[in-house]
Amino acid sequence: MGFFERIGNLISGFFSNIVGTAEKSNPEVVYEAAINERIKRHAELKKAVSGIVYLRNKLEAEREQKTKELADVNAQLPVAIESGDDEVALLLLQKKNELEKALVEVTAGLEKVSAQAEDAKEGLMAFAGEIQKLKRERDEMLAKKATAEARIKIQASLDGLSTDADIKALENVREHIQKLHAEADVGQELKDSSLDTRLKAIKAKTGDSQARSQLDELKRLHAAKAASSAAVAEGAAGKKTL
Question: Which domain does 38 fall in, by range?
Answer without folding.
Answer: 3-159
